[in-house]
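Notebook B, p. 112. Complex prediction, attempt 2.
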Amino acid sequence: MIMARMIPMEFLAGFHRFFILSSPLFHGSFTRGWYHRIMPNDPATAVEAIDGILAYASEARASDVHCDPTENGLQIRLRIDGQISEAASMPGRLHEEMIARLKILSGARTDLHSVPQDGRWLASIGGSRFNIRASFMPTYHGENAVLRLLPAGTRRDESFAALGFAPDHAAAIERSMKKTSGLILVTGPTGSGKTTTLHSCLALKSREPLSIITLEDPVEYELPGIRQVHIRHAHGVTFAAGLRAALRQDPDVIMVGEIRDAETAQVAVQTALTGHLVLSSLHTNSALEAIPRLVDMGVDRYLLASTVRLIIAQRLVRCLCHACSSEGCAACRFTGYSGRSVIAEACEIDAGMRQAISRDGPVSGAMGLAAESGFRDMAEDGREKVDWGVTTRAEILRVLSA
Ligand SMILES: [Zn+2]
């Protein structure tokens, strides 16, 4: 999470030259125009254009910057709190120069135009450091670039409460993280914050004298004191192969970025069974769907019953803006929302659940048991967060019906 901060004057000077703004660009004085009607006013060079866009993205707490060629130029869009919005359009004459500049910065090849490429660089934007990951693709109107901005060097608050977990869910995660073996799963679609939750789990574990290895595709954030391995699926390295290699590195705790195939599922469960704590993520809609998904991947029910400790399912919802509570103000760029929180469900596998899992039968049995032990599903967690004033009913509906 990037803290809101002012854009330094040196950026502002260049910035005003190509964005017509109806008010100064300091927070507290943004207008609707800042968000909806930013007009390009002829940046002189690609360097100037890119510096301005990055300063703008950093100030708006954007996670991604899309530079997409259109018939008339380069459309710049930002993803902020999970939502894409239009930010600016750049004149066509700067298109190739801007893509070339981004390629040079990220170490991609400037002489290749018809193949996808990627790269990264460490940028200093308005006094903050970012790891920027760039992806280039040949599109219909020419090459595009998508940049992911990852804050570097600033430690985020890693507590589960800071991520938005309710006290009972945070306590369930902390209890499970005390175990020395077994499988802990975080489920949800892409962009639901699973990796961030897994990283918070690892941060908690890294306070103990343990050997911790992660297998990630890609490694986005540096975790101090943890061996992080970048798994390159593109180069034919699978999570399963990475996991087998990691086992020869004397680990206590292993995080496998994602279980997406039968082989990884089976190796992960075997690893969890042999005295390792394994953390991973899975693409399912709910916590309880994780069990049948793993069974479908060929994992034995009795192995699952004896290894799975906790299954979390989560989504990210936008938080109501503190400054205006949904009215819309400059601080939230007139969206009414600022920042994001998880809504979650956490299913701890107890003796009764273990029996239900090892028996052949529908998940509904396990679900009934979970309900008895006070399981709150994501919709219920969402309703409570509406009651607490964290978010809105509309936002919960939007996220849960997606
Ligand atoms: Zn506001």
